[in-house]
Specification:
The structure is a single chain. The chain is mostly beta strands. It is built from 1 helix and 6 strands. It has one helix at residues 3-6, and strands at 10-13, 18-29, 34-45, 51-60, 64-67, 71-74. The longest helix has 4 residues, at 3-6. The N and C termini lie far apart (28 Å).
Length: 80
Amino acid sequence: MRFSDLQKKEVIEVKKGTFLGFVQDATIDMKNGKISILQIGGAEKSLFLDSKIKDLKQVRYDDVLTIGKDIVLVGKKTDT
């Protein structure tokens, strides 16, 4: 999967079912070349459908449970 496929997907926290925002950017671990952190921003939609980033949050990529067609589900993984 390319990062461009991941951008602008909605991010939902599964435990509470809350909308966190949209994937805006990512931090790459230079040692292994993998995503380590997703930058999540709530987007304000303007009249011209431009989005402005506000309240940037960080979500560890290890906390991503699944990536769907339109959304990314995140939460703490538990050992069962």
